[in-house]
Amino acid sequence: MKMLRKSNGEILLDTSNTKLIFENQFVEFVSALPEEYNLYGLGETIHALRLGNNFTKTMYAADTADTIDRNIYGTHPVYYDSRYYQTSANGTTTYVPWNQISANGTYTSLSHAVYYRNAHAHEILLRPEGLTWRTLGGNIDLYFYTGPTMAEAAVQYQTSTIGLPAMQQCWTFGYHQCRWGYNNWSEVEDVVNNFEAFQIPLETAWNDIDYMYQFRDFENDPERFNVETGLAFLSDLHASGRHYVHIVDSALYIPNPDNATDAYPPYTRGHEVGAFMLNPDGSEYIGAVWPGYTVFPDRLGNGTNAWWVNEIVMGHQNVTFDGIWIDMSEVSSFCVGSCGFGNLS
Q: Are strands 108-116 and 11-14 parallel, antiparallel or unpaired?
């Protein structure tokens, strides 16, 4: 493919100067773009809305806080290209770079989108001469959405490729109070009561990992967030028409095999059905997150989803939540590799 055009003749992608490099699973391809091109998208990054032509965007989900211009929690390798054209009195249409647009001018705007479907770590280099995609492997699998408006290109991307978001309950759109650092149920209840005392609308109260016993999923701290007190508080919360959400991390604690008192039933049940990610030698991949050494659910495993649903259901019997906050799903680990293997004791 040398050039991709729309039916009106507009060039969407010019690959006449494209070079493809395949070296040790590394793939690079370059596409020419118009002078002073005008691109948006390529989330998730804290960056200017317009991407500019001197920016390197890394596609690799990472728990790196809110670092400017760095890859963070999600990856969306789709960009939106918006171009402006001016038609002269004799009918000639001319491309106008974005930085030459006049507030008093009359222009026609045309937009399209390009999505690079690739699960490997990759990066996009935006440079004055064009755009370069680099990836550690996989196929060159490009999708083009012809617009011709920005809104239509976004709809085409959603409806034909990634799917529409799930419909949400009405209560999810109200005000939600969430923070790390509530020490017990009484503090959460006091916050809710103060919202009411000052007549501030409150739809939902949230809890971070404070409620957990030693930061373990599905287990409440027996002293500070005991189940009996929690059920009483949540009964009153629900009676007032409000809701409750608490956090569930994507990594689960793996106990010390030499210490019987360190038993953790959610891990044991998951281990029995092969629910966790493995090292190449078949041993469980063990990272480190808030509770210490942890394993990570293998969402493609045959028994994983049934095990996970069962843990959620049993957790709801203890704490009648209305939604769960899934966190640390980049997936996040505080060490390099399977650092817990052989070290659990």
A: unpaired
Query: How many structural domains are present in the chain?
Result: 2
Tell me the pLDDT of the chain (345 aa) as tens digits. Answer: 444 545 555 555 555 544 445 455 567 777 789 989 999 999 889 999 999 999 999 999 888 877 899 888 888 999 999 999 998 888 899 999 999 999 888 999 999 999 999 888 989 999 998 999 999 888 888 999 999 999 999 999 999 999 998 899 999 999 999 999 999 999 999 999 999 999 999 999 999 999 999 999 999 999 999 999 999 999 999 999 999 999 999 999 999 999 999 999 999 999 999 999 999 999 999 999 999 999 999 999 899 999 999 999 999 999 999 999 999 988 899 999 999 999 998
Cα distance between residue 326 and residue 209, in whole Å: 11
Domain edge (last residue) among 113, 146, 162: 162
In a domain, 332, yes or no: no
70/174 same-domain check: no
The DSSP letter of residue 111 is E
337 domain-assigned: no
Q: Are residues 211 and 243 located together in one domain of the fold? A: yes
pTM: 0.79
Using CA atoms, how far residue 279 sits from 179, 283, 309, 343, in Å, is 35, 5, 24, 15
